[in-house]
Design brief:
Structural class: alpha/beta
Number of strands: 8
Order of helices and strands: HEHEHHEHEHEHEHEHE
Distance between the termini: 30 Å
Shape: elongated
Length: 263
């Protein structure tokens, strides 16, 4: 429901009309928030500039009104985004697919920093599109304490760990390895895989990622620069959580969506 006042504020500030459709589970909350927005608008402009619709049938009708609607921004699952894109016809749609976000723990990293970043990226808000879904760890950490510390941290935070095939081969006992890294868990689950090098990590991200947000944890400036220039994602960070891919944390105050499409 917090999306409603954020989107409404951005629409008002940019001089745009707005049609909102929230989830049925938040209908009553959205209705209260919508009424507050309309009351706030009465003194400055027609409150009907912002409207709230309730049914899927109304959405279907709106998708045919290309002469009146300039942009559609679906927020939700990847299937919702795909359905809207297919039904919108000539109306532009701004939306992203899955948020398959990666954190790569480089060979030259600060272990305390790495542990904090991994837990924040996965556990702060697991359902968000900017939550970490795959943890990539440089192979050098298998012989040190950091690998075990990271796995233990995840377990202590009730995160279910899915082992990648490379990692499974290196463990004496392992569950069935993961064969699909394109899963957006949206919960306290994540994939963990071992990589040989920074280049190996970049290749993994380009193979399995969705171009949303990817992070390197490193104290090596050369590695940080190479990662930033090699990873082709909407957000590429060094030594911070994937959760920083957020309008509020960017200092923008509010956001509508993030797109990983290139124009």
């Amino acid at each position: 429901p917090d999306a409603l006042p954020q989107v409404a504020a951005l629409s008002i500030a940019s001089g745009n009309g707005l049609l909102l459709k929230g989830g049925k589970e938040a209908w009553h909350t959205n209705r209260v928030l919508f009424n507050l927005v309309q009351r706030a608008l009465e003194e400055f402009c027609p409150p009907t500039a912002i409207q709230l619709i309730a049914s899927r049938e109304e959405v279907a009708d709106l998708l045919k009104m290309n002469q009146f609607i300039d942009l559609i921004i679906p927020r939700g699952s990847s299937q919702l985004v795909k359905d809207i894109q297919e039904a919108a016809g000539s109306i532009p749609v701004m939306g992203h697919a899955e948020g398959i976000c990666h954190v790569f723990i480089d060979r030259d990293c600060d272990s305390k920093k790495a542990r904090r970043i991994v837990i924040d990226a996965k556990c702060d808000y697991p359902a968000a599109c900017n939550a970490m879904e795959t943890l990539l760890i440089h192979k050098s950490h298998l012989t040190g304490g950091l690998f075990n510390e990271l796995i233990e941290d995840l377990k202590q935070n009730n995160v279910k760990v899915h082992i990648g095939p490379r990692l499974a081969m290196l463990l004496p006992v392992s569950p069935t390895p993961l064969d699909d890294f394109t899963i957006e868990y949206g919960s306290l689950e994540c994939a963990v895989e071992i990589v040989d090098s920074l280049q190996d990590a970049v290749q993994h991200i380009h193979t399995w990622g969705s171009g949303h947000t990817d992070v390197i944890v490193t104290e090596d400036e050369k590695s940080a620069k190479e990662f930033r220039s090699s990873v082709d994602s909407a957000c590429v960070f060094v030594n911070c959580s994937t959760r920083f891919a957020d309008g509020y944390r960017f200092g923008l105050g509010a956001e509508v969506t993030i797109t990983n499409r290139q124009n």
